[in-house]
Amino acid sequence: MSWTGSRRGSLRTIARDLGRILQALSVMPFVSVLVSVAWGEFYAVPVLVVSGVLPLGIGLALARRYADAADPGKLHGMMIAAAGWLLVAVFGAVPFLLLAWLAALDPGVLSVPASVDTPTLAAFRDPLNAVFESMSGFTGTGLTMTVHEDRLPATLQWWRSFVEWIGGVGVIVLTTAILARPGSGSLTLYESEARSEKIHPSVVSTVRTIWWIFILFTFASIALLWLAGMPVWDAINHAMTGLATGGFSVTDESIATYDSAVIDFALVPVMTLGSIAFPIHYLVLRGDVRNLYADLQTRWVFAFFALGTALLTVVLALSGVYGAALTPATLFAAFRYGAFQFVSAASCAGFQTAESLGTRWPAGAQLTVTLGMVVGAAAGSTVGGIKLIRALTLVKGSIYRIQGVFYPATAVRRFRLDGRVLSDVEAAREFEEAAIVSFLWFVFLVVGLAALLATVDTQQFTLENVLFEIASAQGNVGLSTGITGPAMPALAKVTLLFNMWIGRLEIIPVLVLLRALFARGGAYA
Amino acid sequence: MTRLDREAPRQLLAAGAPDDALDALLLAGPGLVALLVLLGRTPLTTALAAAYVLALPAYVAARALDR
Fold this sequence. Notes:
The complex is a heterodimer of chains A (525) and B (67). In chain A, 65% of the residues lie in helices and 1% in strands. Chain A is mainly α. Chain A has a two-stranded antiparallel sheet. Chain B is 85% helix and 0% strand. Chain B has helices at 3-15, 20-39, 43-66.
């Protein structure tokens, strides 16, 4: 069914599936009630109940009203994914908004402690800040409107971690896992959420296996971080956001709060686990560990992390950031911060240990981190960025094309990628897909750069600071040079919101949705 | 309890690697976290957490050697 062919039918399909996404989302606030009760924050329970009832009611109404709508096609899938991620960001903002206003108005019957109403929480009375935080969480970005994370109620600390954890795997993966619907419709939606690899022939089995792996790794990460010295609440939250490569923290200065090399190095494997595609995890858990080096992307995840770490360590050591003299102590500091920040950037986690990337690190170091953020890690994992497989396809494809000039026209050549031998037509298709997404990625990077340069104080922030911030948002990384915060202009917040949204969905679904909206609005035929 | 509530844990376990030991690790996870919360940092909880962390790579390595 084409969009122009049957708009009413298309809208019914889209509305039904958006309703299903909202139904799945509604589970999250209800589950979070347990956290409020455990922390004795009973005033937050009504907030979470309302936050769950809203999407549940609307979701049920849409799903039942259009229950007999047709299965989604590729076009619908993209529009559902794009609209669905926007909707979950809006509904995910409700706990921030309601709790901030509840603390401000303090209706008495709920006995909100006066200490809850901090300026940090008050920032969420602005709906734009609440939506920004929610979008940043669901997309696994980690840029934040929270000034002092440790002053948020535990309920909201958990909510931030929980949305990142769910968003790391994907809201459509969550919907498919909870509201199983076998058939081509689920597969279409699954692929629209920037996923393509399947573990089992059935997409429902695939998403359940993804959750099985993710939950198992979450428990292991919690135990590891706790052993490294984190308090248990911090370990739970950082394990969730680290594995989801989201980067929200419950502490004021991210991982730098602990100033512990052991914790820094404990988080590196957690973030690396989140950077490897789920099908590879599945094979490795079955004992087929050879996939860690036989799979092209996974091999390059390790190589890219190692090369980036080495480069960043050298830049930091030579620039004297951690001491002018090259002593074992300064070299270790350069390696410690370089390794953590590069893995944090390339895995798109966005945890920060270096005090200020914006003012203390030299431009060369910032650009190295920016490279990590732009490229990202493995497709099919929880990371953002262009993804290593696309970068490798572009590099290998370019070499293949250039080498082709030196062969006779009659030569039969084969393009090899990730163990596959591709014909010219197949190679051209792979190359085209990688080139289009990468091109669009850079176009929207430049558009965001222009918008941000027009709104932020360029006396305070340099061009590389602004480029870093936009790359961080669009790569769903979350490292910040200090630009992002509740005081930034509304247009800058909207710009970063848009970049986070398109970055998570790899741009094309959002463009498809916008085109359909403009077409429907009569902007063009 | 709805049918979905009853079926979800079983389906989740059925979805993982076909391996009882890994399923047991998954099931032990919430219990371990509960112990860490309730008992705090004691020699017992430290040993249990260390065993949990090491069990996963050790078991995978053992399975890899068996292949």
